[in-house]
């Protein structure tokens, strides 16, 4: 048995629905980089999920390559992890259909994110949006995933994934690994710079609310300086009561690696203006090499295409093994039978 096959498996993905943000590094990419050396990792660009919102086709294609380039720029090593595009592995959509027949309408309708997204996109509440968690379950279960790096907002979807896996295993025989969440202590969910009770989002219409990973240094400094803080006068970490300044502390922690407690102690009596300047300096130093590498990689589309073709081939080998087991167990006929 190879060393790779002995390692636990991690699956995770990001939608290519815009330029990635600082929140993606905090909640996903930096954790992926750390995990890739100890686990068998499948990092997906989940373009099928992006279709739940109407996309401009040219933008979706461009953002897919942007996403792949940013994975690499952030430190994902294709020699250590499999990077691929979801739609390039048909088993994702195929398993999602089978799993949909194991999903109760009531449990799908209770998904909190469906309710939230339906309010945000009231003009386009489609069946794909409703079935989004089932496709997510297929994404995870295809690779016999042990750990899924998720933010708090995705925990409910992972619980559905676990329920579906257990339901299928009980109905037939052990087929799917039951995945567990991997949630980092800090930085799993950076908040909007303009409304720190909302998650930082690439789709926020107010671009001052979000740090994009391709933002230049001036834009980063400007957005940090304009960030909403609180009515207090001291630098304290209290996300529930002082979310604005706490969010800036988490950003500083992300950029420097300094412990939260140490940051608070060092800047406790500093003015907001002084602390914001320090946050901006730290963030510029942290993101500038990532941005430079991103543009270098993004300019070589032939390299990215080759990388994604190879990644899809690797992913399909694993995914198809799982799908064929599922098909046999539910009774779908094959010429090999």
Helices, strands, pairings?
Layout: H1 3-6, E1 9-14, H2 22-35, E2 40-45, H3 47-50, H4 57-74, E3 81-85, H5 91-100, H6 105-109, H7 112-120, H8 127-141, E4 147-149, H9 155-171, E5 180-182, H10 217-225, H11 243-256, H12 260-267, H13 272-298, H14 301-330
Helix pairs in contact: 4-13, 5-8, 5-14, 8-9, 10-13, 11-13
Structure description:
The chain is mostly helical. The chain is built from 14 helices and 5 strands. It has helices at 3-6, 22-35, 47-50, 57-74, 91-100, 105-109, 112-120, 127-141, 155-171, 217-225, 243-256, 260-267, 272-298, 301-330; strands at residues 9-14, 40-45, 81-85, 147-149, 180-182. α5 (91-100) packs parallel to α14 and α11 packs across α13. It is globular and about 70 Å long.
List its salient traits.
2 domains; two-stranded parallel sheet; 337 residues; 5 strands; Tyrosyl-Transfer RNA Synthetase; Rossmann fold; three-stranded parallel β-sheet; mainly alpha; single chain
**Structural class based on helices, strands and sheet pairing:** mainly alpha
CATH class of the largest domain: Alpha Beta
Task: Provide the gyration radius in Å.
Answer: 21 Å
Oligomeric state as shown:
single chain
CATH topology of the largest domain: Rossmann fold
Offer a concise description of the structure.
The protein has 2 domains: 212 residues, Rossmann fold (3-Layer(aba) Sandwich), CATH 3.40.50; 90 residues, Tyrosyl-Transfer RNA Synthetase (Orthogonal Bundle). 55% of the residues lie in helices and 7% in strands. The strands form 2 sheets. A 3-stranded parallel β-sheet has the order 1-2-3. The chain has a two-stranded parallel ribbon with strand order 4-5.
